[in-house]
């Protein structure tokens, strides 16, 4: 029996599990169905790509992708990269036996929202799914009544189009990088600590190292600054965190 909290979160939510191991795939499907989610499964990366790109039909909208990396034909990293390249914002939770820091960083860099290392407990998987869906809903609600274009000097962020430009030239940002820029442009000159940025961008349920903030800031600087080693836009405030402008 699901709790009132999980029922509220899972209502009408459709999850896509992309996993080639039948035993793992069925175990995840049964656990998530028991929590009240609608669950679809794909065995290969090609099959998942076709399903994800069918979302132009709103009746087939996917709310969260649970993605393995080691897939036949098309691996999870390349699938994630293609999804984000086509500006599909569906949240992605990577589940993988690849546990090195470089693997986790790569997964997040290509657009995943979270990374869970196998083996893991089903309760943790469910908790992470809930957290990602909750953040997705909150972020959607926050943007409903806000200005659609945010600008600072020669940088503009177009909210309806999910894109950022500098001197009218488009800057290719990953989802988390985009969210950080949106927050910065909403609050120029404000100083943000790492913990505050984690809470605002990754959510209060995020379990991970605060250094991920530094990694994402470095990536953004490399894309928007004329000289990333001497930034004009995102400045480090020693002992406190970061500020924009």
From TrEMBL:
Domain Response regulatory: 14-133
SUPFAM superfamilies: C-terminal effector domain of the bipartite response regulators (SSF46894), CheY-like (SSF52172)
SMART domains named among the record's database cross-references: REC, Trans_reg_C
Modification type 4-aspartylphosphate: residues: 68
Any one GO molecular-function label of the UniProt entry: phosphorelay response regulator activity
Keywords for this protein: DNA-binding, Hydrolase, Phosphoprotein, Transcription, Transcription regulation, Two-component regulatory system
EC number of the protein: 3.1.1.61
GO cellular component: cytosol; protein-DNA complex
Enzyme class, broadest EC rank: hydrolase
Keyword Cell inner membrane carried by entry: no
One Pfam family this sequence matches: Trans_reg_C
Signal sequence annotation: none
UniProt key word Transcription: yes
Protein name (database record): Two-component response regulator
Species in which this protein is naturally found: Prochlorococcus marinus (strain NATL1A)
Gene from which the chain derives: phoB
